[in-house]
Amino acid sequence: AQSVTQPDIHITVSEGASLELRCNYSYGATPYLFWYVQSPGQGLQLLLKYFSGDTLVQGIKGFEAEFKRSQSSFNLRKPSVHWSDAAEYFCAVGAGNTDKLIFGTGTRLQVFP
Amino acid sequence: NAGVTQTPKFRILKIGQSMTLQCTQDMNHNYMYWYRQDPGMGLKLIYYSVGAGITDKGEVPNGYNVSRSTTEDFPLRLELAAPSQTSVYFCASTGSQDQPQHFGDGTRLSIL
């Protein structure tokens, strides 16, 4: 069965520091992979997606993610975090041909000034 | 640009009451979804639809019903509200497999 694991429930970083959020997936075929961000009281906003091609994908707000098939990972990175990046981040994998998404349990990012 | 609109934003129900959570999208998307989000659990798929007149169960469908009479609307019905249904509910839509899902702002539902 498909699954997504985000091993870090909560991460705290200082503003200006680099960030890496981990995501591992289990899926039999080449997956569609997504990172979403959720600010408090808001819905989910797409940061970036991977379908095929270049394994390093660029997203909005200066985020990037790298698909590593050998490690079944799709980690999210940002070189310098801003206070406004504090939010919850969800990794998701597309399953099957009905566009169902399987979400990880999320990583809450806290940013200290 | 409206996107995906959910109403109401907040609601408190008594056990055993019924209600319908509304979801409408103006992007002419065929695929629509209902999720619930509980703390520390991520999003769980309740029901989804691949087009008007077609619905199917997701991971956690018990206690819910849906209908899809039009492309735009995908209401979620709770017939007999239970405390376990206290959650934040999100509706989402997408046009195709190679496009991301667009989410509404959610409905926060408390059942007391």
Cα-atom radius of gyration of chain A: 13 Å
SSE-based structural type of chain B:
mainly beta
Total number of helices of chain A: 0
Number of strands of chain A: 12
Q: Label the overall shape of chain A.
A: globular
Q: Rg of chain B to the nearest angstrom?
A: 13 Å
**How would you sum up the major sheet of chain A?**
6 strands, mixed
The protein's oligomeric status is heterodimer
- Identify the overall geometry of chain B: globular
Distance between the termini of chain A: 41 Å
Largest interface: A-B, 24 and 27 residues
Number of strands of chain B: 11
Major beta sheet summary of chain B: 7 strands, mixed
Q: What average pLDDT do the residues of chain B reach? A: 93
Q: What is the string of SSEs of chain B from the N terminus onward?
A: EEEEEEEEEEE
Percent of residues in helices of chain B comes to under 10%
Q: Note the beta-strand portion of chain B.
A: over 45%
Structure in words:
The complex is a heterodimer of chains A (113) and B (112). Chain A has 113 residues and is mainly beta. Chain A is globular. Chain A is built from no helices and 12 strands. In chain A, strands 2, 5, 6, 10, 11 and 12 form a 6-stranded mixed sheet that branches. Chain B is mostly beta strands. Chain B contains no helices and 11 strands. In chain B, the strands form 2 sheets. In chain B, strands 2, 4, 5, 6, 9, 10 and 11 form a 7-stranded mixed sheet that branches. In chain B, strands 1-3-8-7 form a 4-stranded antiparallel sheet, with no helix packed on it. In chain B, a hairpin with a 5-residue loop joins strand 4 and strand 5. Chain B is globular and about 40 Å long. The model of chain B has no long low-confidence stretch (mean pLDDT 93). Classes of the chains: A mainly beta (113), B mainly beta (112). At the A-B interface, strand 5, strand 6 and strand 11 of A face strand 4, strand 5, strand 9 and strand 10 of B.
